[in-house]
Amino acid sequence: PTFFVCILRSSFIMAEHPELWDDFATFYVEHLEAITNVMDVELQYMAHTKEAKKAVVVAGAGPGLGAIQVRKQIKDDVQLYVGDISPQMVEISKSVFVKHGIDIQCQDTKTDIQVLDNIDMALPDGCCDRYLANLSWMFVPDTQKQADEAFRLLDEEGIAAFSVWGRKERCNYITIPLELAKEFDVPTPEAFKSFQLGDPEVPTKLLKQAGFQRVNTWYHSVPLAMYSGAEFMDLISRMPIWKPVYASLGDKVADFNRRLEEEAQKVLDVEKVIEFDNLGIVAYK
Question: Minimal CA–CA distance to 14: which of 5, 6, 23?
Fold first, then answer.
């Protein structure tokens, strides 16, 4: 049989505006990939990726750090498909594989890196026994559909592992700009309509509706290495998810950025951290 790992990334923002993620790609690698990769590692562990006998599907490649980790864990005869909706992210992934000595042009390496959208995967039913989705589920326009897709792709003994945004009170990385958007009376980013996935009951219900028999969840808060409020402001101002907010601010951009810096600095001044809380989920078919 043909074995493969398929690494994909999807969101309605990405699908409609992949150019935003193209612009963001290099900044993401420099400032955020190390943060999101913490959950990559946890999901790989929780899904027993090394023990996969058939195939692994990973939904969410980004610039490829998690993909490299999976490639190094799986057997040599397992094919690896790496995908992202952003062409720039895909190009970065290709360069990362080359730097790790993997010749992606050689068929023997069984590595295929291309632009893919995980909400509509052209893969056969029951094609894998592991499915990983790190921080992509909350972005898709139909969260039930991704749960259904995971169930469809897994064989009868399959395991799926997801991560999504977690507790709002432990996720000031998102809530600081979110509250300021309300203060400035500008529209809340569409993506935050799926923040409710951070309540364990919500993804559990979606996964059981898809057909999974058992679901286990856990929280994991990851700190951001921010030394100043100004550094946080720079990060938020360059993230694609906040582009609609900035577009709606008009001549208030400078004031918004000033308030971002102030609020983040308040957190740091009381010796706390900017943190990104995650909910981890493992589901058994």
Answer: 23
β-pairing verdict for 78-84 and 56-59? unpaired
Closest CA to 165 of 12, 39, 26, 260: 39
Pairwise CA distance, residues 148 & 170, whole Å? 29
User: What's the CA gap between 16 and 274, in Å, rounded?
Assistant: 29
Assess contact for 162 and 203: CB atoms under 8 A. yes
- Which residues make beta-bridge pairs with 159? 130, 284
CB 191 within 8 Å of CB 241: yes
Kindly report, residue by residue over 232-261, the tens digit of the pLDDT. Answer: 999 899 887 788 899 999 999 999 999 999
The token duo for 212 is 């999974």
For the cut 70, the answer to whether the pLDDT of residue 278 exceeds it is yes
Token pair belonging to 102: 């993997």
What is the β-pairing status of strands 214-223 and 275-284?
A: antiparallel
- Other CB atoms within a 10 A radius of the CB of residue 241 amount to 20
Q: Which residues contact 274 (CB under 8 A, 6 or more apart)?
A: 172, 173, 176, 223, 224, 226, 232, 264, 267, 268
Q: What is the DSSP string of 64-118?
A: SHHHHHHHHHS-TTEEEEEEES-HHHHHHHHHHHHHTT--TTSGGG-EEEEE--G
Which strand (E) or helix (H) includes residue 41?
helix 33-46
- Other C-beta atoms lying within 10 Å of the C-beta of residue 269: 9
4 C-beta neighbours (distance < 10 Å), count: 20
pTM summary value: 0.83
Phi, psi of 62 (to 5 degrees): 55, -140
Q: Other C-beta atoms within 10 Å of 220: how many?
A: 15
